[in-house]
């Protein structure tokens, strides 16, 4: 798109003069590219020769090499820059004093996907806390929310369920960029960070990813295409159940199922409202790893036909309710641990509100459950106004 520029592009275009003579660290991964598909670490090394002293990687690794939750990545060394690569998803998710000793300014360039449980936001919060404590600067190079910044959906996270998959009371589909989330973290946690956000040029809240003109590069191994991000705010809930969320297939989260699902029975339980903006294709698949590995699963693939109508969280809650009604004898909630939480139920951490699980167990109509979270979302949307960088 003409006139559009990412945070990394803006930093290069305006030379980042104040970073001269600063020791730089970069938190990034394989999706951290500029508009010319040059890796951010390479772009920064060119713009600031000899100043990049350390690299940091989030969940899945700096190169995006590791699958699934709680699959940790070790520290390493970057052969091109000859600097350490510190994993922030290893024996600790919090940067230690030794990691930050090497840098004056931490530059963050991570592609978020617009869903609360995506762990990159929690990693950024941990970095902000450490930087504030150790007197380091943080520079966020902003990137688009691929599913837009206008539509918000899903339960607002309750404080008693804060975790690595939910560090603050965002709704599931939060409509924020990483830069906006960082500004919120700094304020609500009273960090007093030396924080700056390099905003994008030309991004509008109504934009979906295709409108940016950018090529999609997987921000994590199970986010292979833009369409994955469209369904993810709802489909991620299957991680808290014994249904396959499609890991071990080529289209995770768009495809889901289990050996015991009955296509016809489930369709009969779904309202037309739940299916607004999408079509369901009946599929069978055999996961090559993860849940039901090697077993034939029956399920569906979601095709989003109208992203302005489709509500992924409501769809998946309605489908989850239908599975409970039709297959209560074989359906199960996943037991802990989940993302380093060993006591609370994974589904509660994901949904963000225990009362939702309890309502589903009672057979409450999904539309009634939605009424509760929609009021919370309206209040959050009004509250977030002061933190928005794009109108």
Q: Could you characterize what this model shows?
A:
The protein is an alpha/beta fold and 391 residues long. It is built from eleven helices and twelve strands. The protein has helices spanning 7-13, 40-47, 97-100, 120-134, 178-188, 226-235, 263-269, 312-326, 346-351, 354-362, 366-383, and strands spanning 24-27, 52-57, 76-78, 83-87, 105-108, 137-141, 153-156, 171-173, 194-198, 255-258, 278-285, 297-304. The longest helix has 18 residues, at 366-383. The protein is globular, with a radius of gyration of 21 Å. The relative contact order is 0.13.
Task: Please provide the count of β strands.
Answer: 12
How many angstroms does the end-to-end distance come to?
A: 18 Å
By CATH, the superfamily of the largest domain comes out as: Uncharacterised protein PF07075, DUF1343
* Largest sheet data: 7 strands, mixed
Rg calc? 21 Å
Strand order across the biggest sheet?
3-4-2-1-5-6-9
Which class of secondary structure composition applies to the elements? alpha/beta
**Number of helical segments?**
11
| Helix content bin | 25-40%
Count of the domains: 2
Strand-residue fraction? 15-25%
Low-confidence stretches: none
Give the ordered list of helices and strands.
HEHEEEHEHEEEHEHEHEEHHHH
CATH topology of the largest domain: Rossmann fold
Mean of residue pLDDT values = 96
CATH architecture group name of the largest domain = 3-Layer(aba) Sandwich
Specify the overall morphology. Answer: globular
Overall CATH class of the largest domain: Alpha Beta
